[in-house]
Amino acid sequence: MTPRATYRMQFHKDFTFADAEAQVPYLAALGISHLYASPIATARSGSTHGYDVVDPTRINPELGGEARFRRLVDRLKAHGMGMIVDIVPNHMGVAGGENGWWNDVLANGASSHYAPSSISTGANPSCSRSWAIRCR
Protein backbone atom coordinates (compact mmCIF):
# COMPACT_ATOMS: atom_id res chain seq x y z
CA MET A 1 0.00 0.00 0.00
CA THR A 2 1.38 3.39 -0.95
CA PRO A 3 1.28 5.93 1.88
CA ARG A 4 -1.09 8.81 1.18
CA ALA A 5 -1.17 10.45 4.62
CA THR A 6 1.12 9.68 7.56
CA TYR A 7 0.89 10.54 11.22
CA ARG A 8 4.13 10.68 13.21
CA MET A 9 4.23 9.10 16.67
CA GLN A 10 7.17 9.55 19.02
CA PHE A 11 7.32 6.45 21.20
CA HIS A 12 8.87 6.44 24.68
CA LYS A 13 8.04 4.98 28.09
CA ASP A 14 5.23 7.51 28.62
CA PHE A 15 3.74 7.01 25.12
CA THR A 16 3.68 3.32 24.28
CA PHE A 17 2.25 1.00 21.62
CA ALA A 18 -0.89 0.68 23.76
CA ASP A 19 -1.35 4.46 23.67
CA ALA A 20 -0.97 4.44 19.89
CA GLU A 21 -3.37 1.52 19.54
CA ALA A 22 -6.08 3.52 21.30
CA GLN A 23 -5.72 6.32 18.72
CA VAL A 24 -5.99 4.12 15.60
CA PRO A 25 -9.76 4.48 15.05
CA TYR A 26 -9.50 8.28 15.28
CA LEU A 27 -6.56 8.40 12.87
CA ALA A 28 -8.36 6.10 10.44
CA ALA A 29 -11.40 8.40 10.54
CA LEU A 30 -9.11 11.32 9.62
CA GLY A 31 -7.94 9.41 6.54
CA ILE A 32 -4.46 8.57 7.78
CA SER A 33 -3.07 5.64 5.78
CA HIS A 34 0.14 4.98 7.75
CA LEU A 35 1.52 5.50 11.20
CA TYR A 36 5.08 6.86 10.97
CA ALA A 37 6.85 5.61 14.09
CA SER A 38 10.00 6.77 15.80
CA PRO A 39 12.60 4.00 16.24
CA ILE A 40 11.24 1.01 18.14
CA ALA A 41 14.41 -1.04 18.77
CA THR A 42 15.58 -1.24 22.36
CA ALA A 43 17.09 2.13 23.26
CA ARG A 44 18.82 3.19 26.46
CA SER A 45 16.57 3.16 29.52
CA GLY A 46 14.30 6.18 29.63
CA SER A 47 15.05 7.32 26.07
CA THR A 48 12.58 9.94 24.87
CA HIS A 49 13.41 9.54 21.17
CA GLY A 50 14.67 6.00 20.50
CA TYR A 51 17.68 7.01 18.42
CA ASP A 52 20.12 5.83 21.11
CA VAL A 53 19.75 2.12 20.36
CA VAL A 54 21.42 -0.39 22.66
CA ASP A 55 19.98 -3.58 21.10
CA PRO A 56 18.85 -3.45 17.48
CA THR A 57 17.60 -7.04 17.60
CA ARG A 58 14.72 -6.47 20.05
CA ILE A 59 11.68 -4.24 20.19
CA ASN A 60 11.96 -1.92 23.16
CA PRO A 61 10.21 -3.42 26.21
CA GLU A 62 9.56 0.10 27.56
CA LEU A 63 7.25 0.61 24.57
CA GLY A 64 5.39 -2.65 25.19
CA GLY A 65 7.70 -5.17 23.56
CA GLU A 66 7.07 -7.37 20.58
CA ALA A 67 3.67 -8.69 21.72
CA ARG A 68 2.21 -5.22 22.15
CA PHE A 69 3.79 -4.08 18.86
CA ARG A 70 2.04 -6.96 17.08
CA ARG A 71 -1.27 -5.90 18.64
CA LEU A 72 -0.75 -2.36 17.33
CA VAL A 73 0.03 -3.68 13.84
CA ASP A 74 -3.07 -5.91 13.94
CA ARG A 75 -5.19 -2.92 14.92
CA LEU A 76 -3.72 -0.85 12.10
CA LYS A 77 -4.42 -3.64 9.59
CA ALA A 78 -8.00 -3.94 10.86
CA HIS A 79 -8.46 -0.29 9.94
CA GLY A 80 -6.78 -0.63 6.54
CA MET A 81 -3.66 1.18 7.73
CA GLY A 82 0.06 0.43 7.61
CA MET A 83 3.16 1.39 9.53
CA ILE A 84 6.47 3.00 8.63
CA VAL A 85 9.24 2.67 11.21
CA ASP A 86 12.13 5.12 11.36
CA ILE A 87 15.38 3.16 11.43
CA VAL A 88 18.81 4.79 11.59
CA PRO A 89 21.32 1.91 11.46
CA ASN A 90 24.33 3.99 12.50
CA HIS A 91 22.68 5.33 15.66
CA MET A 92 23.83 3.10 18.47
CA GLY A 93 23.92 4.64 21.92
CA VAL A 94 26.82 4.12 24.31
CA ALA A 95 24.32 4.37 27.17
CA GLY A 96 26.62 4.05 30.16
CA GLY A 97 27.05 0.29 29.98
CA GLU A 98 23.63 -0.72 28.63
CA ASN A 99 24.89 -1.44 25.11
CA GLY A 100 26.34 -4.95 25.14
CA TRP A 101 27.47 -4.68 21.51
CA TRP A 102 29.43 -1.48 22.18
CA ASN A 103 30.97 -2.86 25.37
CA ASP A 104 32.09 -6.00 23.56
CA VAL A 105 33.72 -4.01 20.74
CA LEU A 106 35.55 -1.85 23.28
CA ALA A 107 36.75 -4.89 25.19
CA ASN A 108 37.67 -7.09 22.23
CA GLY A 109 38.28 -4.69 19.33
CA ALA A 110 38.35 -6.26 15.88
CA SER A 111 38.00 -9.76 17.37
CA SER A 112 34.61 -8.86 18.87
CA HIS A 113 31.65 -10.83 17.57
CA TYR A 114 30.03 -7.44 16.89
CA ALA A 115 33.01 -5.81 15.11
CA PRO A 116 31.58 -6.46 11.61
CA SER A 117 28.52 -4.39 12.63
CA SER A 118 30.66 -1.60 14.00
CA ILE A 119 31.97 1.30 11.98
CA SER A 120 34.53 1.79 14.71
CA THR A 121 36.70 -1.28 14.06
CA GLY A 122 35.23 -3.16 11.13
CA ALA A 123 36.99 -1.05 8.50
CA ASN A 124 40.48 -1.49 9.96
CA PRO A 125 41.26 -4.75 11.77
CA SER A 126 44.65 -3.42 12.90
CA CYS A 127 43.00 -0.95 15.30
CA SER A 128 43.95 -1.53 18.90
CA ARG A 129 41.21 -1.71 21.52
CA SER A 130 42.19 1.58 23.06
CA TRP A 131 42.00 3.38 19.69
CA ALA A 132 38.99 1.56 18.25
CA ILE A 133 36.83 4.66 18.17
CA ARG A 134 39.34 6.87 16.37
CA CYS A 135 40.78 4.30 14.00
CA ARG A 136 38.95 3.78 10.68
Summarize the structure.
This protein has 136 residues and is an alpha/beta fold. It has helices at residues 17-30, 65-78, 100-108, and strands at 6-9, 34-37, 41-43, 53-59, 82-85.
Please give a structural write-up.
The structure is a single chain. The protein has helices at residues 17-30, 65-78, 100-108; strands spanning 6-9, 34-37, 41-43, 53-59, 82-85. The protein has 136 residues and is an alpha/beta fold. The strands form two sheets. A three-stranded parallel beta sheet has the order 1-2-5, with helices on one face. A two-stranded antiparallel ribbon has the order 3-4. The longest helix is centred in the first third of the chain and has 14 residues, at 17-30. The N and C termini lie far apart (41 Å). Residues 120-136 have low confidence and may be disordered.
Search tags:
5 strands, elongated, alpha/beta, 136 residues, three-stranded parallel β-sheet
Write the layout of secondary structure elements.
Blueprint: E1 6-9, H1 17-30, E2 34-37, E3 41-43, E4 53-59, H2 65-78, E5 82-85, H3 100-108
Parallel strand pairs: 1-2, 2-5
Antiparallel strand pairs: 3-4
